[in-house]
Amino acid sequence: MRALITGGAGFIGSHIAERLVAEGHEVVVYDNLSSGRRENLSGFAANANRLELVVADVRDAAKLAECAAGCDVIFHEAAIVSVPYSVEHPQETHDVNIQGTLNVLQAARAGGVRRVLFACSAAVYGEDPEMPKRESMRPSPISPYGVEKMCGEMYLQTWAKLYGVETVSLRYFNVFGPRQDPRSPYSGVISIFVDRALAGTSPTVYGDGEQSRDFVFVSNVVDANLRAATTPGASGRAYNVGCGHRTTLNDLLAMLGRIVGRDVAATYAPARAGDIKDSLADIALARAELGYEPAVGVEEGLARLIEFERKRRSA
User: Fold this and answer.
1) How does pLDDT run across 50-70, given as a tens digit for each residue?
2) For the chain, which has fewer Cβ within 10 Å, the N-terminal or C-terminal residue?
3) Main-chain phi, psi angles of 116, to 5 degrees
4) How many CA atoms lie within 13 A of 253 on its CB side?
5) Quick check: helix, strand or coil at residue 31?
6) Active-site residue, selected from the candidate residues 30, 85, 125, 145
7) Residue 239 designated active-site
8) In the predicted model, is pLDDT for residue 188 greater than 90?
9) Could you tell me which residues come within 8 angstroms of residue 62 by beta carbon, excluding any fewer than 6 positions away?
10) Confidence of residue 274 (pLDDT cuts 50, 70, 90)
């Protein structure tokens, strides 16, 4: 299989690339390196015959079309993923997250790509109080980012119906793991908490800490992507990708304290605009149709991340 991964030098994209290269597939990593990093590919870039890095932006439709030609699958991970940033810069995030996705779909259609996998988000559910979140629920995003992801998902469904390009949308919940840069505005709360804990400083919690998330370790997300790329009959569908368990930020701090062997005290600040209070995935559909099963739980994933960070810092 030959795969194109937009955002392939980023956090999730680089893990997908690593798995595909390890399994013997040819991979084209497409990334403008605004948040992705060459170092994320360094551990497996030695397989130069199976990995190519193209430094370009998803807003460059011509370059995307050139890179998509001859590919079997596109994993579309490229995006501006910060909710607060989308609130402050809606035009820029629109251009990357909506126009960029349309460019990917146009390139897939022109290049004869079999299937496109889209990194969607739990942000499409907004503040609907019903828990857990099911794919059949009416989307109700409360941020430009959520709107942009919902729009991308609708484009995918339309492409599958009109043009015969197979598409699958994966609604990521709160993904965490190695290579998530805690200094980036796009970073998740866990990477920031781990960075502060290992530095001996206090992490900041926006709100009272009782807001909850469905945290999912990155290896589970990679598995969901590979299953979605190959499962017959999945085209045109959307699937939640989480663990199916809710963890509060205060719970997370307690887990972190157990792993590092000391209390991790937070500094509490006002809640941020656009952030939702609670989030929990119903993953029954992904289990039933993709055979997806999250193998790594939150505390185990947190321990793996801390081990990775300690080794990286000592090196």
Assistant:
1) 899 999 999 999 999 999 999
2) C
3) -115, 130
4) 20
5) strand
6) 145
7) no
8) no
9) none
10) low
Residue 47: the pLDDT is 61
CA 155 centroid distance within chain: 18
- Scored b (16 or more CB within 10 A) or e, 156-193 reads bbebbeeeebbbbbbbbbbbbbbbbbbebebbbbbbbb
d(CA 99, CA 30): 16
- Which residue is associated with the tokens 């993904």? 175
Which residue type occupies 156?
L
Residue 210 corresponds to which tokens in the numbers above? 């009782």
The helix/strand/coil state of 97 is helix
pLDDT by residue (tens digit) across 237-258?
Answer: 999 999 999 999 999 999 999 9
SS3 label, residue 280: coil
Which is nearest to 28 in space by CA: 100, 104, 95, 96? 104
Q: What residues contact residue 208 under an 8 Å CB cut-off, 6+ apart?
A: 268
Helices (H), the chain: 11-22, 61-68, 83-88, 90-94, 100-111, 144-162, 189-199, 218-230, 249-260, 284-290, 298-314
d(CA 85, CA 301): 27
Which residue matches tokens 């810069």?
89
Long-range CB contacts for residues 61-66, cutoff 8 Å, separation at least 24: 61/103, 61/106, 61/107, 64/6, 64/30, 64/103, 64/104, 64/106, 64/107, 65/106, 65/107, 65/110, 65/111
Amino acid identity, residue 284? Answer: A
Looking at residue 272, what is its pLDDT? 77
Reply yes or no on whether the pLDDT at 226 is more than 90.
Answer: yes
What pTM value is reported for the model? 0.93
